[in-house]
Design a protein that fits this description.
Helix content: 55-70%
Mean pLDDT: 89
Structural class: alpha/beta
Distance between the termini: 58 Å
Number of helices: 21
Radius of gyration: 24 Å
Low-confidence stretches: 1-18
C-alpha cells in the first residue's frame, strides 16, 4: 500500500439521514508535461471508485469540472446541496508520485481532512485504493469488511492493462475520441481477457461509434454486443456491466431485457449516473414519460452541470408539453458544451413556438457543427424566405443527396421527410433505420414529428418490427 501522512480534522460528515453528496474536483499537477493527463485519469478513477461506496453520492465529471472552473467551488457546491468537496494536487518525484488531498465540508467551509499519499508512477491504482479506503472514514461512512474488500480489490493484475483501460475511459468520456478509446480498451482486454470493466467500456465505446453519424452502425453494434456479452459472463454483479448490457439490448429491441438490466444496475448502485440517465431515455422511448422523470431528476442531482443531463431534462419537459421550459433547458445545455444535436432540438422547439428567426439560427448552428459549408446554410435561409418551412425541408432533403454532403443516418432522413410531409419516404427511411438498428430508430414512438403518421397501418408495422405494441 502507499505511504501516507494524514491529519483528520473532523470525525463526522453530516448527522442528517439524507444521502451525502461529494464532488471530486479535477486534480492539479505541478509541472505536468504537455499532453500528460495522469492527473485527469487519476481524478476520474478515484471519482469512479468513490461512487461505489454504499451510502455516498458522487457528483459526475461535468459538474465537478464546472465547480473547479467557477473559482468558488465550495460556495457553488453548497448552493447545489453538495455536502463535501475533495481537491488534490499531484507532484512527481522521480519514479514516485505524491497526491496531496483536502476534503472540505461545504456547509461550514471547514476542512474535514487532509492527507498526502505516495505511490510508484507505474502503479496509479495504488493511489486509488488508498483514497477510496480513507475518504469514507473521513466522511463518517462506516463500511463492512466485505464492502471494503470489494472497493479495494483490483479489477486486473496487469498494470499495463489497467493503464490502457484508464486511457480508453478518458478518451471516450472526456474527449469523445472513440477511435483511441477502442484502441486502448482492446489493448486492455488483450493483455487481460478477464478484465470485465474493460470489456464493458469497450462495448460502450463501440456503441458510441454506432450512435455517431456513420454508415456502419449495425457492424459496430455487433462488436458492442460481443464485448458486452463477455463482460456479463465475467462480472454480472457490476453496475457498469449491466448498463452496457441494457444499452445493447435496447438496440436489439429487447425491451424487457433492457429494462431488467437497467433495474439490476440500479439495485447494485442506486447512484449510478449513467444508469439513471440512460434508463430515463429508455422510458421516454417507450412513451413512459412519468416514469422517466425521477431518473432524469436523479441524474441531474448527481451531475447538476452536465450538458447531457440538462438536455435530457429538456427532453422530459418537451414530452410533458412544457415547450418554453424545455427550450430554456436546451439553451442552458448548449451554452456549456456545443453539441450538434442540441441546436436541432432548440430549432424544433423554437419553430413549434412560432419563433422562426430563432429556429433558423438554431438549425444553422446544427448544420454548421455537422460540417456543412456556408453556401449550404445560405441556401436553406433563402428557401425559407421564399417558401417557408415546407420549402426549407425540401431543400434540405435535396442537399443531403449531394455527394459532398456529410452522411445522414436513415432515421434523420425519415425525420426530415416527416417534416416535409412525404409519407411514403418516411416509412421507407424508418424501415431501413430499424433494419440497421440505428439508435435513432428507437425514438420512433416518442418523436412528435411522426404524430401525423401514427394512424397509418405502416406506422404500426414499424413498431411491430421493433417488438413494440402499436
Amino acid at each position: 500500500m502507499v505511504a501516507a501522512i494524514a491529519w483528520v480534522l473532523a470525525p463526522r460528515f453530516y448527522s442528517s439521514p439524507v444521502l451525502p453528496l461529494l464532488a471530486v474536483l479535477p486534480f492539479d499537477e505541478e509541472r505536468a508535461a504537455v499532453g500528460d493527463d495522469l492527473a485527469a485519469r487519476l481524478t476520474e478513477e478515484i471519482r469512479s471508485g468513490l461512487a461505489r461506496v454504499p451510502g455516498l453520492g458522487v457528483i459526475g465529471r461535468a459538474s465537478s469540472e464546472a465547480l473547479k472552473k467557477s473559482g468558488h467551488a465550495i460556495a457553488l457546491a453548497r448552493s447545489n446541496q453538495i455536502g463535501a468537496v475533495l481537491e488534490g494536487r499531484l507532484r512527481r518525484q522521480g519514479d514516485k508520485v505524491r497526491l496531496s488531498l483536502e476534503l472540505s465540508n461545504t456547509a461550514s467551509g471547514r476542512m474535514l481532512w487532509t492527507e498526502s499519499l505516495e505511490s510508484p508512477v507505474a502503479d496509479p491504482f495504488a493511489l486509488q485504493i488508498d483514497v477510496v479506503e480513507r475518504v469514507p472514514a473521513a466522511l463518517g461512512i462506516p463500511l463492512t469488511e466485505t464492502q471494503r474488500l470489494r472497493l479495494v480489490t483490483r479489477p486486473t493484475s496487469s498494470l499495463e492493462a489497467y493503464r490502457a483501460y484508464l486511457e480508453g475511459r478518458h478518451a471516450h468520456w472526456v474527449r469523445a475520441d472513440f477511435k483511441t478509446a477502442v484502441e486502448q480498451l482492446r489493448m486492455a482486454v488483450e493483455l487481460d481477457p478477464g478484465f470485465a470493466p474493460a470489456w464493458a467500456e469497450l462495448a460502450n465505446a463501440y456503441g458510441g461509434f454506432a450512435e455517431a453519424p456513420n454508415e456502419s452502425a449495425k457492424e459496430f453494434l455487433q462488436l458492442a454486443k460481443a464485448a458486452g456479452q463477455k463482460s456479463l459472463e465475467l462480472a454480472p454483479n457490476l453496475a457498469e456491466v449491466q448498463v452496457a448490457s441494457a444499452s445493447i439490448k435496447e438496440s436489439e429491441y429487447d425491451w424487457p431485457g433492457a429494462e431488467a438490466a437497467y433495474r439490476r444496475a440500479l439495485e447494485i448502485d442506486p447512484n449510478h449516473i449513467r444508469a439513471h440517465h440512460w434508463y430515463g431515455f429508455f422510458l421516454q422511448r417507450l412513451a413512459r414519460s412519468a416514469e422517466a422523470r425521477p431518473h432524469r431528476e436523479r441524474a441531474l442531482e448527481l451531475d447538476p452541470f452536465s450538458p447531457g443531463n440538462i438536455a435530457h431534462l429538456g427532453n422530459q419537459l418537451l414530452s410533458e408539453g412544457r415547450l418554453a421550459e424545455a427550450l430554456e433547458k436546451y439553451r442552458e445545455s448548449d451554452k456549456q458544451v456545443p453539441h450538434w444535436s442540441v441546436p436541432f432540438s432548440i430549432g424544433e422547439v423554437s419553430r413549434a413556438l412560432g419563433r422562426d428567426a430563432e429556429a433558423l439560427d438554431a438549425y444553422e448552428e446544427h448544420y454548421r457543427l455537422l460540417g456543412e459549408p456556408r453556401a449550404t446554410l445560405d441556401e436553406l435561409r433563402a428557401a425559407h424566405a421564399t417558401g417557408g418551412w415546407p420549402a426549407y425541408w425540401r431543400t434540405r432533403l435535396k442537399q443531403i443527396e449531394r455527394p459532398t454532403s456529410p452522411y445522414v443516418q436513415w432515421h434523420f432522413r425519415g425525420h426530415l421527410h416527416a417534416l416535409a410531409g412525404n409519407a411514403d419516404e418516411v416509412f421507407a427511411c424508418m424501415a431501413r433505420s430499424i433494419e440497421d438498428h440505428e439508435f435513432g430508430a428507437m425514438n420512433l414512438r416518442a418523436d412528435d414529428a411522426y404524430k401525423p403518421y401514427r394512424s397509418d397501418p405502416r406506422f404500426k408495422e414499424l413498431l411491430r418490427r421493433m417488438n413494440l405494441e402499436p
